[in-house]
Each structure stands twice: as C-alpha cells, then as structure tokens.
Amino acid sequence: MDNIVLKILGTAQDGGYPHIGCKQKCCKNAWADSNEKRLVASVAIIDSNLKECWIIDASPDIKFQINMIMDFLDIDYCPKIRGVFLTHAHMGHYAGLLDFGKETMNTSAVPIYAMPKMNDFIKSNSAFDFLIKSNNIVLNEIKGDVKLNKNIFIKPFLVSHRNEMSETVGYKICSDRNNIVYLPDIDSWEDPYIDIINIIKSNDVLIIDGTFYQLDELEKRDISSVPHPTIRESLDKFSVLDVSDRNKIYFTHLNHTNPVIQDSNIKNDLILSGYHISNDGDTFNIL
Fold first, then answer.
1. Tens of pLDDT along 22-40?
2. Does domain 4-285 have CATH number 3.40.50.10330?
3. At 186, is the secondary structure helix, strand, or coil?
C-alpha cells in the first residue's frame, strides 16, 4: 500500500444515484440492486501510515464515505480528519458537514478550508454556525496554497459555475511524484479562469466534470439552467489531445440520467477513445 493516496469516495451528482424521486429507466435497476448505486461526488487524501485523511467536499453520503476510508485502512474507528476542503455552495458539496455535529460524530475542531465567499456562506447559516460555536469545526479561509505536510500541498483555482451563493474552485493536489486535479463542477471549458487543455497536459490525473453526456437528457428541466460541459462537448474539446493525455481524464459528478452509468456501448466507446469513467473506490497514488 502506498503511503498517501487519493481515493474517490463518490462519483454521482448532488442527488446521488439512484436519484431522489426517480424510478425512471435510468434509476430503476439501482433502486433494486444496491450494488448499482453511486455515492455523491467526493474524494479523500489518505495517509496509510498515520491513519488520517483530508476530504474534498462533505457530501450527504459522508457516513458511507468515511466507512469506505475505514475499510481501506482496515480500522474499526474513524480516522483522524485533518481537514475538509469545500469546492462551492451547492448542497452535495457541503451538506455532510452536519454529520460533524453533536447529534452524530461530535467531532472536535475539524479544520474546514473554504474560499472567502464560501467561508461567509458557512458562517451565515445558523446550522453550520452552531458547529463552529460547538467547536465541532474550525473555519479556515483559503488565501493561497494549503500545505498538508512537508511533501504535499493543495492549490485552489477559480472556475465559473452558477456562483449564486459562493465562488467555485477546483483543487490541484501536488507532490513530487504526482499532480492530481479535482474539478467536479464547471459551467463550460471555455472558462475565462482556466485553460483546460494546458491543465490536462501539465498534470498526471484529472477527475473532472462529466455531469451530462448530452444536452437532451433532462425531460422536465431546461438543461441550460444547470450548465455543465457535456461529455460529448468535452470529447470535441479534447480531440486535440494525444491518447496519453486522454488517459489522464476521469469523468465524475455523473447525473443519474447520464447514459455512461447504464449504457455499456456508450461507456465502452468512451473507454476505447482513451478516457475513463470514475468509479466509487478508485485509488491513485500521490506519494
């Protein structure tokens, strides 16, 4: 077992898979077979030697995700959570913090790292502010790179994504061995903040937004009101890449309507083109 790894704890959009209130074809099998389920998007940086971790995004499925970390470490107690990094203020990315309160884990001073507007969002919400007053969590406003230990640091970078309540960031986990980018949400790859092609070429693994496969997935909602680059759009954008660079890309944050979850032909075509679909439990070496 490598000393420090990044483990994917969940790969579904905020509503999870199967999705609340859906018994359509896309979710029917997942309701019948729990092995089909996908937890809400999140990742963890896990130190196997010290039995501790950092989590990026506290999802509503955090109970199962901490258990996943415990299984990975082969321990029967909650590992030390050295910090939680939040990407933005959409519910699938912060609601799990409530499980740190007195009613459940009753944690002690877990550091929460958030950008300025996200920091203010947490403080202005009475339920989360109570966690602060109870010393379950301690807010840390991100003002630059965050050092995890002498060998690893996390670099936040801004992106555009329906920033109604906070800014949105992706995170780059940096070490001497591997650089891993985690970016579950963005409006479009034509983003003024980043050059996605350059980011792909200059990093080793990229776990990125694959929410929708195509624009006609949502029957009862206007998909333009929940902008994400579709996987089809991503394939067009990334067509300039060599296969070695395509192999770095793992699509995550998959909506329950996304056919790559159920349709083996579409999924297989994607894999044959050099890309990957993230799965809960996938693990990548950091150090």
1. 999 999 999 999 999 999 9
2. no
3. coil
